[in-house]
Amino acid sequence: MGQQRYRHQMVVIAWTGLFLLRSAAVHAVALPHGVASGEVSATSATIWARTNGESAFTVAYTTDPSFATTVGTRTVTVSAATDFTGTVTLTALQPATRYAYRVWSQSSEPRDAVSGTFLTAPLATRKHDVTFLWGGDLGGQGFCRQPDYAIFAPMTALKADFFIFGGDTIYADSPCPSPPNAPGSDFAAVTQEQFWAKYRYQREDLFLKELFASTSLYPIWDDHEVKNDFSGPSEPLTPIGLRAFFDYFPLNRQPEEPHRLYRSFRWGKHVELFLLDTRQYRSPNLQPDGPDKTMLGPAQLRWFLDGLAASTATWKIVVSGVPLSAHTGRILTGHDGWGGGTVADGFATELRTIVATLQEKRIRNVAWLT
Question: Measured between alpha carbons, how far is 308 from 361 in angstroms, rounded to an integer?
């Protein structure tokens, strides 16, 4: 996680968040894992929630913080097939506008709703300061909720426009022994139910629920959503790990590409985000580096290079779950990052292709968050 600052025609990056209206105790049981918003654009946003085994929840949204009036309501049906999680996509929203929303389950009332808020993106033609958080690697390698993730409290207090959750949102492959950690995650996930349970454990954290309710998310996965240093095409757990990731975040599935995670978002004149999927299409780490070894896969690589070249944003912010040059991985499993290591190849050929394109097309102000 990190912090930088730019002013006026630059990007302002800081740890931040927004207020949370706490839900009534009765509804905390009906929606035990809080709410979240994500995939926010200038005119749309996706709302996520999980019921406690009930079949539906309703979302009401408005630009009026007092909720004296509402823009609309949407109801979604959920089931055990998604561990009772679901999403609602709100459309025809106003750019650069603060929205409030409330979510309540089928058996409860609007007055018992869990509340959240999000800010829509400015139009691509408008100059606008942008403040965002980024981070990842939550609750693994023996250090999990003790009893809470206290870091999210100061993050929430800083009032960000959005939060980039840059991978390792769970540690599916790493037990969290209790004590010293809060109970509920002392296992490595190998079944669909266990992958879901890893996400439920994270979402039970009070401070995390407050952050997710107060600022929108752009999540992407990395290796620990499935298994350390995994390669998607060759890892048997990839399908259920990917399914759980989609189930537990406010993501939109594209009918023509239902498993696609790489995507981009524009935030005004100066910022465009490019979120890369560095797991689902990658070659095995131990494969010798060369033109046939890929981190992104041909389709994503072309989308990425074309998107950078076409972007008119002052700053192109690239989110990669793996570092460009720092050594990651092990001798027996291969170098996991982009650059090659001293004892194993990386994915340097593909990285050189990216760098060459930036130079050839004179693409400026590309900042990587890894």
Answer: 9
Domain assignment present for residue 22? The answer is yes
CA 57 centroid distance within chain: 22
43, 91 Cβ separation under 8 angstroms? yes
Give the up-direction half-sphere exposure of residue 318: CA atoms within 13 A in the CB hemisphere.
22
Query: Distance between CA atoms of 284 and 233, rounded to whole angstroms?
Result: 9
The DSSP bridge partners found for residue 140 are 143
Could you read off the pLDDT of 5-57 as tens digits, one per residue? Answer: 333 332 333 333 333 334 344 445 789 999 999 999 999 999 999 999 988 99
Chain centroid, CA 363 distance in Å: 26
* Angstrom distance (rounded) from CA 228 to CA 129: 37
**Residue 224 included in any domain:** yes
CB 170 within 8 A of CB 207: no
Establish if 45 belongs to a structural domain: yes
Token pair 């139009």 is found at 123
Closest CA to 195 of 83, 85, 90: 83
Q: How far apart are CA 26 and CA 325, in angstroms?
A: 50
3-class DSSP state for residue 242? helix
pLDDT tens digit sequence for 264-294:
999 999 999 999 999 999 999 999 999 999 9
| 142: its two tokens | 């023996």
Q: Tokens in use for 251? A: 């993501």
**Angstrom distance (rounded) from CA 265 to CA 317:** 10
Instruction: Count up the domains in the chain and report the number.
Output: 1
**Alpha-carbon torsion angle 367, 368, 369, 370, nearest 10:** -160
Range of the domain at 152: 12-369
- The SS3 assignment for 257 reads strand
pTM of the model: 0.91
CA distance 105 to 313: 40
User: Strands 12-13 and 35-38, how do they pair?
Assistant: unpaired
Residue 282 counted as domain residue: yes
Per DSSP bridges, beta strands 85-90 and 315-319 are unpaired
Q: Looking at residue 111, which CATH number applies to its domain? A: 3.60.21.70
- Residue 295's φ and ψ, nearest 5 degrees, are -90, -40
